[in-house]
From TrEMBL:
Keyword Cell inner membrane among record annotations: no
PANTHER family registered for this protein in UniProt: ABM DOMAIN-CONTAINING PROTEIN, QUINOL MONOOXYGENASE YGIN-RELATED
Full protein name: Monooxygenase
GO molecular function, one term: monooxygenase activity
Annotated ranges, domain ABM: 2-90
InterPro entries for the chain: ABM_dom, AI-2_Isomerase_LsrG, Dimeric_a/b-barrel
Pfam families: ABM
Transmembrane residue ranges: none
EC number: 1.-.-.-
Keyword field: Monooxygenase, Oxidoreductase
Keyword Plastid in record: no
Length: 95
């Protein structure tokens, strides 16, 4: 299992549009073969968004990153962010 945490920092005034775009990804991504987890979070008292994802293997991540919905969302969101998307591949240290 490969787990990923992704952080998004919207530009001031673009928070609602960033949230809309991220929410639009939930259904298509959770329907991808090899996706075990895809959860969207918003920082309390802040404007940052986080995705917590888990994929079966590298092939599942590659399929995700090459999907039409992924390519479209990356294009749509890039001008709405204050900084680059922060992607971390993580390792769970407990069960």
């Amino acid at each position: 299992m490969i787990e990923v945490i992704v952080k998004f920092t919207p530009k001031s005034g673009s928070e609602n549009e960033v949230e809309r775009i991220l929410r639009s990804m939930i259904k298509p991504v959770t329907n991808e073969e090899g996706c075990h987890r895809y959860e969207l979070y918003k920082k309390l008292n802040g404007a940052e968004f986080y995705l917590v994802e888990a994929y079966e293997d590298d092939e599942a991540i590659d399929a995700h990153r090459n999907s039409d919905h992924y390519i479209a969302y990356r294009e749509a969101i890039k001008t709405l962010l204050d900084r680059d998307i922060d992607v971390s591949i993580v390792e769970r240290l407990h069960s």
